[in-house]
Every structure is written in C-alpha cells, then in structure tokens.
Design brief:
- Helices cover 81% and strands 0% of the residues.
- By secondary structure, the chain is mainly α.
- Belongs to the HisL family.
- Keywords: Amino-acid biosynthesis, Histidine biosynthesis, Leader peptide.
- This is his operon leader peptide.
- One of its GO terms (biological process) is L-histidine biosynthetic process.
- It holds the Pfam family His_leader.
Length: 16
Amino acid sequence: MTRVQFKHHHHHHHTD
C-alpha cells in the first residue's frame, strides 16, 4: 500500500 493511497482514503472520510 502506498502512502498516497492512505492519504486519499483519509480524504474520502473527510468528504463523508
């Protein structure tokens, strides 16, 4: 898993 993926996932949670 790349760090970028982790950051992207976090962003998705925030948008929720």
